Amino acid sequence: MRPQLIDNLGRRISYLRLAVTDRCNLHCRYCQSATSRLDARRKLLSYEELIRLTRILVAMGISKVRITGGEPFVRNGLLDLLRYLRALPGIQQLALTTNGTLAGPHLDVLRKISLDGLNISLDTLSPQRFLEITGKDHFAKVMAFIHDAPGIIKAGAPIKINTVVQDGVNTDELLELAQLAENLPAQVRFIELMPFNGAQGFEATDWGIDRLRGYFAKNLPRMTEVVMPEATTAQVFRVRGFRGTLGFIGGYSRSFCRQCNKIRITPQGMLKTCLYDDGVLDLKELLRSGVNDEVVESQIRQCLSHRQPNGFVAAALLHRGQQPCSMASIGG
User: Fold this and answer.
1) What is the rounded distance in angstroms from the CA atom of residue 268 to the CA atom of residue 39?
2) Mind listing the pLDDT tens digit for each residue in 215-269?
3) Which of 144, 177, 194, 314 could share a disulfide with 276, CB 3.0–4.6 Å?
4) Structural domain boundaries, residue 114
5) Which runs of consecutive H residues, i.e. helices, occur in 179-310?
6) Residue 171: phi, psi to the nearest 5?
7) CB 250 within 8 A of CB 209
8) Any bridge partners for residue 326, and if so which?
């Protein structure tokens, strides 16, 4: 049996976020700017390469795989990849992140695949504001998918509705969005705005995690914190009378780094050991150089032996003047 994948700070790595595309049918301003660069298909990892990397990493101890984008359903062949990963020994949890606009026609197949988790993006409950944020009039499709979601995941598996908090854009809707968890068996998660829109000039929001928690504690006094597993990103709260829960994610304040158990592979094949690094290993180049799996594994382990303690250190090491990444190119 291979040694477990453990970084230089003793954090066991068991979670892979695998981005299959940087393309999306929506154009959310906080995710990609008008000047964000999207790579041509030939620059992306092929499905064969994605599968090979996943098999290598599962043998090293990865047990949870989340498929991300861009929007995963933009890429043809996604369902075949999900079927393959569902059957791959060693994957204990297979999850998907989607904006929900293209998944509707695939509900029957998704039910058969039976995902272990599903994240859905939703930043507003106003159809007009949805159009302003995303550039597309797909609000009704997303809401329909949210209500269909419990039927396409395993019983008891988590549904998470991700809301990026944008000061002056959707902060007047926070309570209304939270109330989705009153009748849905879902976790509505409020995420700090992060500097990944592919453009210069990011300014941190005033709606950090402390303000968010304080706001909801004041307006939902029945809210109590849930004790979560160590490697959980969100701080989770129950509200008496709600079927679901609320979560708060300090992606900008980076409040969860000390227990981070995840790595990312971008659509272009860059290994990221931190959301805030600029990629530590070009896996696409490595695979296409003809090396065997043992070399790939050795290179990945070498990268994990120099992992940064948190996102602040990783961000400080970025090259000065470097164009910021877009979240679509990272894979979330």
Assistant:
1) 8
2) 999 999 899 999 987 768 889 999 999 999 999 998 777 777 888 999 999 999 9
3) 314
4) 15-330
5) 180-183, 209-219, 283-288, 293-304
6) -70, -15
7) yes
8) 197
* Residue 296 included in any domain: yes
- Helices marked H in the chain: 47-59, 78-87, 107-113, 127-134, 139-148, 174-178, 180-183, 209-219, 283-288, 293-304, 311-316, 327-330
Alpha-carbon distances, residue 316 vs 36, 42, 278, 313 (angstroms) = 22, 32, 11, 5
Sole residue written with tokens 């995710």:
31
Q: Is residue 1 part of a domain?
A: no
The reply to whether 7 falls in a domain is no
Residue with tokens 């964000």: 36
- Name the residue among 89, 85, 16, 26 with its Cα closest to residue 51: 85
CA nearest to 220, candidates 171, 161, 170, 178: 178
pLDDT per residue as tens digits for the range 199-211: 455 566 678 889 9
What is the rounded distance in angstroms from the CA atom of residue 117 to the CA atom of residue 92? 11
> How many angstroms separate the Cα of 282 from the Cα of each of 13, 231, 232, 273?
19, 26, 28, 12
3-state SS class at 27: coil
Q: What six digits make up the tokens of 181? A: 């968890």
- Pairing between β-strand 262-265 and β-strand 245-249 as defined by DSSP bridges: unpaired
Domain count along the chain: 1
d(CA 105, CA 101): 10
Task: Answer yes or no: is 4 within a domain.
Answer: no
DSSP designation for 101: S
User: Which CATH number fits the domain that encloses residue 194?
Assistant: 3.20.20.70
pLDDT band, residue 197 (cuts 50/70/90): low
